[in-house]
Amino acid sequence: MIITLENIGKRFQRHRIFKDVDHSFKAPNAYALLGSNGSGKSTLLRIIAGMQSPSLGKVRFYNGDKELEANKVFSHISFCAPGMELVEELTLQEFFEFHFSFKKLLPGMTIADVIKKTGLEGAVNKPVGDYSSGMKQRVKLAQAIFSDTPALLLDEPCTNLDQQGVEQYRDWMEEYSKNRLVIVASNDPREYYFCREVVEIERYK
Questions:
Q1: pLDDT band per the 50, 70, 90 thresholds, residue 102
Q2: What letter would DSSP give residue 75?
């Protein structure tokens, strides 16, 4: 999986967030998008994911040497961000059944395995809306990390996690991020310690 940014720029009304971003992200590798709060790193990550359009430039997605059509990108990318919404009326079991009807599980894994890895077996039949913010973040991370996609994009992945949750995140990344394209938007070293390349968003102001 390769994602290439060509002269990407973003404006909100008259305010320019960033400009002239040229970069290629290639699997297998892990990249950190770094920047202070409000710098635009989350916006850039959504553009990289194909979830938001740039004001200028183009994002290209490649699977091997073949460029992906826009309607094929979804099946190749998993995304997690603190602000993303869960279907809170569903129980954890129902939510994962719903999510993994659209995305394949990692080979050899079952929904029961994913639930066990989250440590939320005791709340499996509760509506997700009744979960704490930390529990919801575990669910968001699990739906992304355990989806069988070549690209994994994470925005501030340890938001709302206690120390046990942070350690769980680290364990998951150690085991399940190899051979994938991983991009982490963050300003917290605990979240991107494993990334081998850094993109400083401030360079593109």
A1: very high
A2: G
How many domains does one find in the chain?
Answer: 1
CATH number, domain of 106, equals 3.40.50.300
Q: Which ranges constitute the DSSP H helices of the chain?
A: 41-48, 92-99, 111-118, 133-145, 163-176, 189-192
Closest among 51, 46, 53 to 10, alpha carbons compared = 53
pTM of the full predicted structure? 0.94
Residue 2's CB: how many other CB atoms inside 10 A?
18
Residues 116/101, Cβ–Cβ less than 8 Å: no
Residues 6+ apart with CB under 8 A from 129: 86, 88, 89
How far is it, in rounded angstroms, from Cα 2 to Cα 193?
22
Q: What is the pLDDT of residues 172-199, one digit of tens each?
A: 999 999 899 999 999 999 999 999 999 9
- Average pLDDT of the chain to the nearest whole number: 95
On the 0-12 / 13-18 / 19+ scale of CB atoms within 10 A, 203 is: exposed
Range of the domain at 51: 2-204
- Tell me which H or E stretch contains 181: strand 181-186
Site of tokens 């990289």: 48
Q: Which tokens in the block code for residue 44? A: 């850039």
Rounded to whole angstroms, the Cα distance separating 165 from 138 reads: 7
